[in-house]
Amino acid sequence: MLWLDFLNTDYHDWRGTGKDEDRLERVDMVNRLLDTWQLSAAFPLSPLELKEMRELRQWLRQLTERLVRGETLTLEDLDKLNGYMETFCVSYRLEVEVSENSGHEACPPYRLEEERQGQGWAEVQGAVAASFARMLAHNEPGRIRICDNPDCLWVFYDDTRSRTKRFCDDTMCGNLMKVRRFRAKRKPETP
Question: Which range marks the domain in which residue 133 is found?
Fold first, then answer.
């Protein structure tokens, strides 16, 4: 999912070194993102473009955190998301479907409608927003997770059958947290 790759350009070292990196400033990472998702935009980003991309990333992170807590998007969120999608060459409009049972559902059903337009970094923003909207409309927002490793905070989509995945990668973050818990239990108490 493009929006996940985009959110995770705000990198935090999962090993706990305290190293953070904004991968929107790295040409190799931006090129990989653009190539993977077949998007086109000039690099390096202008200071204004970088600021706008960071603002989008921060806002999507806030929405993601709210979804992880089981909250739903507001009408203002939908309007803002739709505004971003208007800049995408294939833009989408996200709406909440109102039905007789809509007040009784844990998460309202979302519907995605296509429209056409855009280019450049504005198109990238629209593509990211459309990817997020597609996830809301066609997947289960309740499966979005933030890695339980407090040093990592990687955002991922839990596609496991049990819906209990806690770490972005069980062999890296999962094992690291297991070792930390084990060492904390074995640590001798100081008098």
Answer: 2-146
With respect to residue 95, please indicate whether it lies within any of the assigned structural domains.
yes
Please indicate, yes or no, if residue 190 is contained in any of the structural domains: no
pLDDT tens for each residue of 84-106: 988 776 666 888 877 666 555 56
Among candidates 47, 52, 37, which has minimal Cα distance to 87? Answer: 52
Note whether residue 124 is domain-resident. Answer: yes
- DSSP per position, 47-100: HHHHHHHHHHHHHHHHHHHHHHTT----HHHHHHHHHHHTTSSEEEEEEEPP-T
Predicted TM-score (pTM) of the model is 0.75
List residues bridging with 146 in a β-sheet. 155
Q: How many domains does the chain have?
A: 1
- Residue 153 in any domain: the answer is no
- In the chain (191 residues long), the average pLDDT of successive 10-residue segments reads 94 80 92 89 90 97 95 95 84 75 65 67 91 94 89 88 82 72 69 58
Structural tokens at position 136: 């809301």
